[in-house]
Amino acid sequence: MTAPANVKPPTVVKSEAEWRAQLTPAQYYVTREHGTEPPFSGPYWNEKALGTYTCVCCGEPLFSSETKFNSGTGWPSYYAPIADEAISEYSDRSLFMRRTEVRCAKCDAHLGHVFPDDPRPTGLRYCINGHALRFSPKKAG
Ligand SMILES: [Zn+2]
To answer: pLDDT tens digit string along 34-86?
Structure first.
């Protein structure tokens, strides 16, 4: 898979062994092996608290509870990333489908896919694996 011209190379680069040591098997499978967790199996698909979702690999803020919605799919879903430059998007032709893959721009972690089929403000549905994320609840006050 070649990166589109507008995608910058990741700045956090670690070896397979380093990622394995840092991540749980489920986190490693999703983020470094481009896996997909079964629906309703990962964390956060039903999380409703206010806060920020960061990359489980490098800690970069990726999504906010403000754009999270219940898509009914069993995966955390958002209609926009926290910042355009926080994620990189790749054309994904695996499984005989044309999809757009979403990765963390900083460390190249696979996050999930974005689909242009949602009626919310942006028309986009970022369908993200919960195992690729870490939730930081908003502090009171
Ligand atoms: Zn990352």
So the answer is: 999 999 999 999 999 999 999 999 999 999 999 999 999 999 999 999 999 99
Sign of the CA dihedral with 108 first, then 102, 129, and 49 last? positive
* Chain centroid, CA 107 distance in Å: 12
Among the listed residues 55, 58, 107, 127, the single catalytic one is 127
pLDDT in tens, 83-140: 999 999 998 777 667 789 999 999 999 999 999 986 678 899 999 999 999 999 998 6
DSSP letters along 56-90, please?
TTT--EEEEGGGEE--SSSS-EESS-SSGGGEEEE
**Which position has the token pair 């920020």?**
52
Annotated active-site residue 127? The verdict is: yes
- Say how many Å lie between the CA of residue 30 and the centre of ligand 1: 12
The model's pTM is 0.91
